[in-house]
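Is iron/sulfur cluster placement plausible here? Inputs below.
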Amino acid sequence: MKPTSPRAARRQAAKFGKGALTLEELAQRVAKARVSGVDKARVERARRILTSYLQTAFAHQIPAKDVLAEMASGKAAWRLGMAVRDELMKSPPKVVQEAACAEGCAFCCILNGGEGGVITAFEAEQLHTALTPLAGQPDGRAWHPKGCPALDPDTRSCRAYDARPMICRSFISTDAAACEINAEGGKEMGAGLLGNHLDYLLVLALCRAALKGITQVQTYSLADTAALGVAGADGIADARQKTSALEIACHDALVAATA
Ligand code: SF4
Ligand code: SF4
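Reply from A.M.:
I modeled the complex. Tokens:
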């Protein structure tokens, strides 16, 4: 594809062509990347996680263009968030041991906030692919007007379980009754996001900052992506969020983590 402007030509060259970034240059960009408005210690923790990912890529001689693609799509953030979650689960915190979560309990799948949460392009593609074969079937909105379209309205189980995004894997509660109240706008205690979620968001924010001028790191609305999937829509472009959505999500996750 021919670049449409000198700036686009430079971006294309940096991504794929002559002068393409090396892993060392990617690591330098990560080292300098800034995420503002969030506790510095948490940003540095996410930077260490992303840096160790780059070191692993270097050790395994993964091509820099593949690493760049994973950082841009959010697959890197997703993989690293899952790795932190797996580590956490080796010695489950009290909230996990006492979780009230069970199959068919789906108050957390009532997407009250409108967009339903921030997800990466990688996750949005996965979710959309899992849901398009279900186009035309009754969905979660037949159970509750704000139900996630990925829900089965009868069993209230997720019909895209293996493709569910990080936010669905991170949300947990010790009190299903509190979740029911919160789903209608309440502020009951007992439900929240596991710590891996903030790491995932901050790694994504660092990827965005590190790749500035090369490629855009987009985020997508969970609710809109799922709605597009069950509508059989061609793609996920209409679920793309404003840049500020990731900043707001990082801020909210930090507040939730320190609450
Ligand atoms: S987070 Fe709340 S609503 Fe969701 S499964 Fe757990 S207890 Fe049920
Ligand atoms: S994708 Fe699945 S787990 Fe996530 S909100 Fe929708 S129905 Fe619930």
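Short version: The radius of gyration is 19 Å.
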